[in-house]
Amino acid sequence: MNMTNQDYGKLVNEHSQPSPIWKDLIWAFLVGGAICTIGQGLSDLFQSWGLDKEQSGTAASVTLILAAALLTGLGCFDKIAKRAGAGTLVPITGFANAMVSPALEFKSEGLINGTAVKLFTVAGPVLVFGISASVIYGLILCLLQA
Fold it and tell me: What gap in Å lies between CA 31 and CA 97, rounded to an integer?
């Protein structure tokens, strides 16, 4: 079958369902906003328990990461993400989900070769870039101050 790119585009448009963009945007906004509201509520709660602002922010982040990892392990996070789309991926919960999902997928390969190795498929490049960038920025700062 010989088809131009334009003909193929027309064929795809004829057979594909339109995307419910406004519905998707509203769901992403509501779920992402709810996650951020929960995070702020946790931060306020931790402050009321005596932590300062920085410590309560850290505790709230860790709590959100733990909750997202648990929800991923229980299979609930994917159901929420299917409905909310980017609303679950933008906050810190998306990073936790991105780390736990590959580890769960490869748990049948064993604790070390499966779960532990795949846990860092996302975190590894982030850590390498972060550490490398901080070393380079530190060297530049040292050279500029000399």
Answer: 15
| Domain boundaries along the sequence of the chain | 20-93, 106-146
Q: Return the HEC string of 86-125.
A: HHHHCCHHHHHHHHHHHHHHCHHHCHHHHHHHHHHHHHHH
CA angle (122, 127, 128) in 5-degree steps: 105
DSSP 112: I
> Is residue 107 within 8 Å of residue 114, measured between CB atoms?
yes
> Rounded CA gap, 137 and 146, in Å?
14
- At 26, the amino acid letter reads I
Six-digit token string for 40: 């702020």
| Distance between CA atoms of residues 45 and 18, nearest Å | 43
pLDDT, average across residues 31-49: 96
Q: What is the pLDDT of residues 75-109, one digit of tens each?
A: 999 999 998 988 888 678 888 887 777 777 776 77
Q: Which of 90, 96, 81, 91 is nearest to 27 (CA)?
A: 81
